[in-house]
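Service request form, structural biology core

Requester: graduate student, group of Dr. S.
Request type: structure prediction, single chain
Budget code: on file
Notes: please return the result as structure tokens.

Sequence provided:
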Amino acid sequence: MKPPVRMSGIGAVCSPGEGERGSEGSARRLNEALSALSQGRPQVRLFHGIEEVTFLAAHEALSISGVRVPSGRDDIGVALGVEEGIDGIKACYYRRLLEDGPLGASPIAFPFTAPNTIAARISILFDIRGESFTVCSGSLSGAQAIGLALESLREGRCAAVLTGGATSVEQEHLDALRHLGQSNGGQPGCGACLLLLERQASADERGGAGQLLGYAEGFGKADIRHAIEACLEDAGLFPEQIDSVRVSSASDLRSLVETLREVVAGAPVIRSPSSRLHSASFPMAVVEAAGHVADGMHGPVLVVGTDCLAGASASIVRGGRG
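Core staff response, request fulfilled:
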């Protein structure tokens, strides 16, 4: 069993149709966050939707945690998953370049074709000076970023890590998926879910939004089973101690459910409503799992995500109350 970490702050922003908060509410919250950060400083300017939702999610997670912004701290890191959003931005950029030549190559848009631009912008805007990671591995990018954050905290490299996933799904990305026969029926839009994870003094320390008890990954034919079993070992738990299972994404839901029945038999399986948020889907499911006590459940929740490349991620979450 390895030590858990505390989820001390959560920021979640969804585009219309992907969550309860619509565009008007998000715009108001974004303007308030920008105004708060710009007091006594030059006005902060944001240029792309994925930058806006990530900035707002980061601001809310840090503010809820009581971290002063800008922080100026070198013991807070950033680990962010952004893969498919960057693919869409690249497609839009190069389409304009092909259509309009050099005049279509906007110097403002170009930085967003680099995967680490969003994490870098967050680090600069909030003056977060710790180590920084950007994960680009499809829909599990946000999950793997959480795994990196957990490792960093357990090894003592950071006191806190702002982690999760962000997506900006462009129409060009959806068109490419349809061409490959992998369309999920989604619509263009942005979303981000970031958590501030912190080291805690003991395994019994509670508070905040909840605890992340363990994380693991699996690959190949037995990806789901390996991820779940390794995650249980990481958290020091037995399968029968799992209260429920939340599925963040699944390319083959039937196979996933069959594996869950074998490994954690008896635990109810819940499909996350945020499963189409790509990189942000797994972090959103973690947030949903942390709030599971509202549904009358108090034990650990297993969060499982899969992708179309025979990969799986699993995390075990305990809510902040109970």
